[in-house]
Amino acid sequence: MRNLDKAQTTAGLPWPALREALRQIFREGCDAPLRHRHPLPQKDAAEGSLLLMPAWQAHRFTGVKIVHVNPSNALQPGLKAVHSVYLLSHGETGEPLCLLDGGTLTDRRTAAASVLAAEYLARPDSSRLLLLGSGKVAHALAEAYAERFPLREIRVWSRRPESAARLAATLAEAGLPARDVAQADPAGADIIAAATLSTTPLFDGAAVEPGTHVDLIGAFRPDMRESDGTLMRRARLFVDTRAGTLAEAGDVVQAIAEGAIEAGHIQGDLFDLCRGQHPGRGGAEEITLFKSVGWAGEDLAAAVLAYQGG
Question: How many domains is the chain built from?
């Protein structure tokens, strides 16, 4: 069995090839149940979690992402709160084929899925990115969007200004047009990408300008939220998967509970877009919104790409 560390997993998932691998898995489909979550007792925290995200294509490959979330690790310097690995196996024999760095795989497939959606939903000439968040996923988003769109500006905002400044400096050193900003102001942005752990809206949905594409990634639980009901109501809403969104996506679930939208406000998902069953953006002045919570099929496609390309 092969083992791919962080650097090897990154090298095995170049943005264009990863985007196409995701497009293909959304076209073909695979078996991917909603993630399993099991509580784990912690000595110094209320509770940890064991997350299992399986997916398979019959006779081809099976895979499972194994994630441990241990909040008490924050009390120990140098120990991460989240540890993740991905096990890829032969779909017919069950033989283990490859063990990959789960965090890197997740960050890159998440960003690639957002940019894949933006190919259908954002204006092709989008050049101004507002990036909300300063973690690993935000970093991956900046790289992935810059590879696909003609970005002239990347504004980086975070509730922790020092983190925004640090990420902007890192991106600038890599040759990207990034700078940190003090406000999460949507004015002037062609694309807004949010990857935070927020439980309250990050900006006023009424301030989003016509033609903007909004990409919401962070609110992966029903109690989390990055947008308000006003934005949800104004935008044409697309999601990665309907089942996952209606079960877990706080932005959508809370907007429905408030009466801002109904479930039928969802125009389509990535299956519809990738299969040509929905054209995506219909005009230059539309506000489009893509809400993702992640799908285990994306992990499987990424793992197969890295394994076969190595």
Answer: 2
Shared domain for 88 and 154, answered yes or no, is no
Residues 222 and 290 in one domain: yes
Whether 115 is in a domain gets the answer: no
- Model-wide pTM > 0.90: yes
- How far is 215 from 192, CA to CA, in rounded Å? 6
pLDDT digits (tens, 9 = 90+) for 274-309: 999 999 999 999 999 999 999 999 999 999 999 998
Residues of the domain holding 238 = 122-294
- pLDDT tens figures, 23-59: 999 999 999 998 888 988 888 777 888 999 999 999 9
How distant, in Å, are the alpha carbons of 41, 151, 221, 224 from that of 48? 6, 39, 15, 18
Residue 247 is part of a domain; what is its CATH number?
A: 3.40.50.720
Say if 23 falls within a structural domain: yes
Answer yes or no: do 284 and 305 share one domain: no
Short-list 95, 70, 93, CA closest to 81: 70
